[in-house]
């Protein structure tokens, strides 16, 4: 048996251990874990084709791999993600003493242009939130969901993962738990009112099983899915005749932008969004109202 063949088996074993580490220790979501698996399995196939063992991969192999990804039409953002996945794997095996160096250490990821997030105006948000009518169970639920998404800026995965006990109706906030992190987000009057209406007058009727703890449930009484949430937003966007492509994430962008435009500080917005890095929050600075800039120009002695 060739040394290379032995190396293939060793990499398979290390990948299995790495994925277990990501799932059990890092507590990564299923979507993120699948992304790592796709990136690393594609990389493994590439180095197998080059007959290079994973512990013999060097910077030159990595540069060739990036060129290969570019040749097959991968976007810079996809290539950057692939490199990040590979780097995480090599940092893991380096700590375990399975390789002597990280071949990605000095590697430069392709520059990714930050896309400008799609943001709704206050009028468009108002129009969207007016669409669900609280005349039936679905309408009551949908109104509560849309108000909640805009009031909290939570990610769709976080919203559908919420249980009824995560809401503190008395104090007016929601506990958002993600992996081993937790943050509390205030609920505005409109959102709290719509949520109480849903919990008091619709949720129990929609439920088929009293043991179901999900906050938002579908018409079958089960926890709402990502796809379900997307379809609901798309339906009301069309009802409102809004031409922008609205997704749950657009409501998150709008939440952050409108807070900033109305005087909230960046650090507070970062906390509410659950961003680990302030640079992720700074993207919303470009949407600041001219009014804020004018106030600065007039008020700051060195403006």
Would you give an account of this structure?
By secondary structure, this protein is mainly alpha-helical. It folds into 2 domains: about 90 residues, Orthogonal Bundle (DNA polymerase, domain 1), CATH 1.10.150; about 180 residues, Orthogonal Bundle (hpI Integrase, Chain A), CATH 1.10.443.10. It has 13 helices and 3 strands, in the order αααααααβββαααααα. The chain has a 3-stranded antiparallel β-sheet, with no helix packed on it. β1 and β2 form a beta hairpin. α1 packs antiparallel against α2 and α2 packs across α4. The protein is globular. It starts with a helix and ends with a helix. The relative contact order is 0.09. The N terminus is likely disordered.
Protein topology:
Layout (H helix, E strand, L loop, with lengths): L2 H22 L5 H20 L9 H13 L4 H20 L26 H8 L7 H16 L3 H6 L5 E2 L4 E6 L2 E6 L2 H18 L19 H14 L8 H14 L4 H8 L4 H4 L8 H10 L4
Antiparallel strand pairs: 1-2, 2-3
Helix pairs in contact: 1-2, 2-4, 6-8, 6-10
Features:
single chain; disordered N terminus; about 300 residues; hpI Integrase, Chain A; about 5% strand; mainly alpha; DNA polymerase, domain 1; 3-stranded antiparallel beta sheet
Into which percentage range does the β-strand content fall? under 5%
Mind telling me the C-alpha Rg?
Answer: 24 Å
CATH level-four homologous superfamily name of the largest domain: Intergrase catalytic core
At the fold tier of CATH, the topology name of the largest domain is hpI Integrase, Chain A
Instruction: List unreliable stretches of 5+ residues.
Output: 1-7
């Amino acid at each position: 048996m060739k040394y290379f063949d032995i190396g293939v088996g060793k990499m398979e074993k290390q990948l299995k251990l790495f994925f277990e580490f990501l799932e059990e220790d890092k507590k990564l979501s299923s979507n993120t874990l699948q992304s790592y698996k796709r990136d690393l399995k594609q990389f493994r196939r590439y180095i197998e084709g080059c007959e290079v063992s994973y512990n013999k991969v060097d910077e030159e192999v990595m540069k060739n791999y990036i060129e290969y990804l570019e040749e097959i039409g991968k976007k810079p953002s996809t290539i950057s993600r692939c490199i990040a996945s590979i780097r995480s794997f090599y940092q893991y095996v380096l700590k375990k003493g399975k390789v002597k160096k990280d071949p990605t250490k000095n590697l430069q990821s392709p520059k990714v242009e930050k896309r400008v997030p799609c943001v709704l105006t206050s009028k468009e948000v108002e129009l969207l939130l007016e669409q669900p009518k609280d005349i039936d169970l679905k309408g009551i639920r949908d109104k509560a969901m849309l108000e909640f998404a805009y009031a909290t800026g939570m990610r769709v995965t976080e919203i559908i993962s919420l249980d009824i006990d995560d809401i503190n109706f008395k104090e007016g906030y929601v506990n958002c738990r993600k992996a081993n992190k937790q943050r509390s987000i205030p609920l505005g009057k409109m959102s709290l009112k719509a949520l109480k209406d849903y919990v008091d007058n619709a949720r129990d009727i929609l439920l088929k099983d009293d043991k179901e703890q999900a906050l938002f449930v579908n018409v079958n009484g089960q926890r709402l899915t990502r796809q379900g949430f997307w379809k609901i937003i798309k339906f009301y966007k069309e009802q409102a005749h809004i031409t922008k492509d609205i997704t749950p994430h657009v409501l998150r962008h709008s939440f952050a932008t409108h807070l900033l435009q109305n005087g909230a500080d960046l650090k507070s917005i970062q906390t509410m969004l659950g961003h680990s890095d302030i640079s992720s929050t700074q993207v919303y600075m470009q949407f600041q109202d001219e009014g804020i800039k004018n106030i600065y120009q007039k008020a700051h002695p060195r403006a």
